[in-house]
Amino acid sequence: MTLAIRRYRWSDLDAIYSLHQVCLAQVGIVPGDGVYYDDDFPRIHQVYLGCGGEFLVGEADGRLVSMGGLRPLGEHTVEVCRLRVHPDFQRRGFGAMMLAALEKRAVMLGFTRLRGDTTVSQGAALALYERQGWTELSRRQVGDHTVIYGEKSLMPLSVQPHA
Q: pTM score > 0.70 for this model?
C-alpha cells in the first residue's frame, strides 16, 4: 500500500476534521481539556497556505488517511501542526513519510527551523520525532496532559550536498 501526498483542497475539510477527531480520541485528548483545539480547520487557507506555510494530506486505498501542516512562526521558523495518521493506517511509515514531505517543503519555502509539540500520551509521535532528529526544548502541564515542545534544524537548499 502506498501513500500519495498532495496539497490540501477545500473538499478535504470534512475528512481532515474527522481524522483529527479520531486521532486525538485515540490518545484520550478531548474538547475542553486545554490541549484540544480545532478553530483552524475552517481557516486552513488563511492559517497555513495564505501566510507562506503549507498543508498536506495523504491518501491510501482511496481515502484520506494522513495530514500535516506548516504554520510560519517567523522568518526562519515554521511549526509542524496537525500531523495525524488514521489509527487503521498507523505503523506503516505514513507518519514518517508525511513528516519528511513537510520538512522538504519547509526547506523549499526557506525555513531553517521546525518547531512542534505533542503530548506524553502520543508515544508514536514522540518516537517519530526522536527518530527524525528532533530535540526536546521543554515540557508543560496542560490540564491532565504533559505537552512536550521540540525543534529540529533544517539544512537550507543552498548548503545541501548534491547527489
A: yes
Q: For residues 133 and 87, what is the distance between their CA atoms, to the nearest angstrom?
A: 24
Distances in Å between the Cα of 137 and the Cα atoms of 29, 35, 71, 129, 151 are: 22, 18, 18, 12, 7
Tell me the per-residue pLDDT of 86-108, one tens digit each, with 9 for 90 and over: 999 988 999 999 999 999 999 99
Domain regions of the chain by residue span: 4-114
CATH 3.30.70.2190 fits 4-114, yes or no: no
